[in-house]
Amino acid sequence: MELEVGMAQPELMDVEAVQKALNRSRASVYRYANTDPQELNSSYDPKRLNPELRLNPNDPLLFHPNEVARFAKDVLGIRQVTIEVQESAQNASLEVLRAILAELKSIHQLLKSQSSNVNS
Known about the structure:
This protein is an all-alpha fold. It has four helices and no strands.
């Protein structure tokens, strides 16, 4: 594995992405994670995989790619780590929302032009 960090604002990784990057089981990733059922956000622990801060206990665990790479090298002893961060594919909901926004903009422009014609 090689460490590749090239994005200005990398996306956070969910447990499944960490599992694939580290080639470990889902259960292992949860064991590595620095979490505590009594505490929402545990203090930084250099021997654990530290998730990003959460606002709600029901929020999913998300990890910064640099933290995953650090954990793999420093704790697991993996010499070369490759963390590929890809933009998430657009889903159907996002496409529908964009179509709705485009339609609303066109309606707004139509109403705006009609009101300016009435005032003239």
